[in-house]
Amino acid sequence: MQTILGANGQIAVELARELHRAHTPDLRLVSRNPRKVNPSDTLARADLLDARQTADAVKGSEVVYFTAGLPASTELWEKQFPTMLRNALDATRAADAKFAYFDNTYMYPQDARLQTEETPFAPVGRKGRVRAAMASMVLDEMARGDIPVLIARAPEFYGPGKTQSFTNTLIIDNLMAAAGLFSAQARELRELLPRYEHDNRFGSEKFIARFPEFKVTTYREGLSFMV
Questions:
Q1: What is the value of pTM for the model shown?
Q2: Domains (ranges, CATH) in the chain?
Q3: Which of 132, 149, 180, 213 maximizes the CB count within 10 A of its CB?
């Protein structure tokens, strides 16, 4: 059994599809109101702010994926995200499962340097500080060594269908003009926009060596597909 925590988000949906396609049909999707992605999915209701509900949802899992998201509200992030992650880590350790944490890049320096696992955190703004603290929590769990832990990190998602990316919201969906005036969500994203003044550059040598068959989709290909 592989379990996805935060099962209704865009990452979770694509993850569930790919796991079902390439690995296993034995998936448990967990959220407050989970919905099936694949016909064989099992559903479990749980509030990740509740430690007992989280532990019950994870029991019997071989792998636990943390893909939970929150609205772009700084106050919510500060109050809820660390608790959700701590409960997920504790539950995974109790289940003796593997833990995969899906993260962004808000904690990294806002410049165009080449980023690797050794790049120091330099968060800008409250959201960045929350993400830095959460990433540090996962790294501490990794260092503890009780369970296998992996961090999967990406700066942005774009594409057709359900996505909450800046690219789709502010560019592809053509919502940039007067958005900050009328959209609370757009105002919440302002503190993160300086990150996008620079290229996000990642050293991918280790990934390519481990997954040589992985095909990179160019921006031209991706945008052509959307059009």
A1: 0.83
A2: 2-161+188-226 (3.40.50.720)
A3: 149
